[in-house]
Amino acid sequence: MEVILAEHLGFCYGVKRAIEIARENASPDGTSSTLGPIIHNPQMVERLKEEGVGTVSTLDEMQKGTVIIRSHGVGPSVYAQAEQRGLDLVDATCPHVKKAQLSAKQLSEEGYTVVIIGEKNHPEVKSIFEWTAQRAHIIESEEEAAALPTFGKLGVVCQTTFSSNRFRHIASVLLDKSRDIKILRTICTATDMRQSAAIELAGRVDAMIVVGGKNSANTTRLAQLCSEKCQTYHIETADELQSDWLNHVNKIGITAGASTPDWIIKEVFKQCQSRA
């Protein structure tokens, strides 16, 4: 059996940057915490905890110390709350997410009704929504786009990890919703590269292993895209690999989400090779 890694997989720039920032601000006395998990990978979050970076759900859990804004970003009210509480704030928001936030804010301030294309419950999308003073519409399907009324001025931004193909289809529906429309394609290049590489590899293997957090939107999307091409398994760690997945398989591909650490990818690769 041949084991093939996707050309582009694993940590993106924004995730690497967020983890480096978290590590630089680690505190052995437990006074440094990220607001929500720094990235959507439980194993990396646990490792950072061991290194002195905890996790809190709300600022109410912190009386002092350093709060680290995770890669998904937050709304402007969180910055104000942290200042009011006298907390040291370190911003690890992914630069691509920050661009989407500020683009949405500018469109809103210019009088455009903002539509965010993305998953309603994803923390990144929630943060972008906050930057429009909570006035944006959030949609994630062509049907939801078609159901929107027409607008005098319409501005469109997108979750940075959204499917490029789905974005194009939804945006094409929105073109009929206003005569004055600005569509800002805020999907990051790393997402494009990982999705394209995964689809290409899935088209020439018998099965795909997609490695990454089950709570990771971009990893789940990779699994969905690969499953359209071949048998696909989404796992978080090598421990989840099952021998019968590899039976009668001549070629197996491996890809990983943007929040999946290198050491986990290597473990999965080695496990697959050992069973080849």
UniProtKB/TrEMBL annotation:
Cofactor comment text: Binds 1 [4Fe-4S] cluster per subunit.
Function per UniProt = Catalyzes the conversion of 1-hydroxy-2-methyl-2-(E)-butenyl 4-diphosphate (HMBPP) into a mixture of isopentenyl diphosphate (IPP) and dimethylallyl diphosphate (DMAPP). Acts in the terminal step of the DOXP/MEP pathway for isoprenoid precursor biosynthesis.
* Residues noted as binding [4Fe-4S] cluster in the record, renumbered to the chain: 12, 94, 188
The molecular function terms of the Gene Ontology recorded here are: 4 iron, 4 sulfur cluster binding; 4-hydroxy-3-methylbut-2-enyl diphosphate reductase activity; metal ion binding
Q: Which organism is it from?
A: Selenomonas flueggei ATCC 43531
Lineage: superkingdom? Bacteria
- Would I find Metal-binding among this entry's keywords? yes
The protein's UniProt keywords, in alphabetical order, are: 4Fe-4S, Iron, Iron-sulfur, Isoprene biosynthesis, Metal-binding, Oxidoreductase
What InterPro entries does the annotation carry?
LytB/IspH
Q: Which family does it belong to?
A: Belongs to the IspH family.
- Give me the residues that bind isopentenyl diphosphate, please: 40, 72, 122, 216, 218, 259
Q: Which gene encodes it?
A: ispH
Q: Where is the active site?
A: 124
Claim: Metal-binding is one of the keywords in the record: yes
Q: Which cofactor does it need?
A: [4Fe-4S] cluster
The EC number(s) this enzyme carries: 1.17.7.4
Pathway membership: Isoprenoid biosynthesis; isopentenyl diphosphate biosynthesis via DXP pathway; isopentenyl diphosphate from 1-deoxy-D-xylulose 5-phosphate: step 6/6; Isoprenoid biosynthesis; dimethylallyl diphosphate biosynthesis; dimethylallyl diphosphate from (2E)-4-hydroxy-3-methylbutenyl diphosphate: step 1/1
Name the chain's protein. Answer: 4-hydroxy-3-methylbut-2-enyl diphosphate reductase
Give binding positions for dimethylallyl diphosphate.
40, 72, 122, 216, 218, 259
Per the record, the GO terms for biological process are: dimethylallyl diphosphate biosynthetic process; isopentenyl diphosphate biosynthetic process, methylerythritol 4-phosphate pathway; terpenoid biosynthetic process
